[in-house]
Write a structure and sequence with these properties.
Elements lengths: L3 E9 L5 H10 L17 E10 L2 E10 L18 E7 L3 H18 L4 E7 L17 H10 L4 E4 L5 H35 L2
Parallel strand pairs: 1-3, 1-4, 4-5, 5-6
Antiparallel strand pairs: 2-3
Length: 200
Amino acid sequence: MKKKTCCVVLVGDQKCGKTSLCKAYLEGSWQKSTLGTTEYLPTIDATYKTNVEVGQKQIQMTIRDTSGQEAYDRLRPLSYTDCDVIAVCFDVGNPASLENVRVKWHPETIYCCPHSSTVLVGCKADARGTKRPGAATIVRKNECQQMAKTIGASDYVECSVLDESSLSHIFETIARVAKRQHKTKRTGWWRAVKRKIFSK
């Protein structure tokens, strides 16, 4: 039997936490002592493969991590090729990051891949429990859920690199959304065929 596959692209502002989310999930852990101590290195484009279990079935997931820098605005659309799900990420501790979901990331992704599903991902959710030095007002969860509705996201999920279970939940949610996306595509294809046959 052919193994089920899906492709997810992570997008969002620079330093919003999407690369940390990806690496912490793939490596299985994240050392708390390293947070805020390592030099920030911007992502240009990185692709990873992993297996995610959904309903006792393995899905081979391709994860593409993209740069949020404006300098890569023209290159980033290349990462959207054959994408099933867009994970639009933002920093829970930065309201401007959430607003950029509406003004930048949603317009870009809907233009580049209008038929892909979207999952809104709140990164650095541990900010809700502890006020980070110099951090802006924490975004309320109901505001995040409202933004998910505004952009037509299939789901809204939050995570922290300090909580491994929340990381797994993110990618399990993405895999389920991709599974529904594939089912919708198949159903839509068959309906189109039937319309063509019976309209003759």
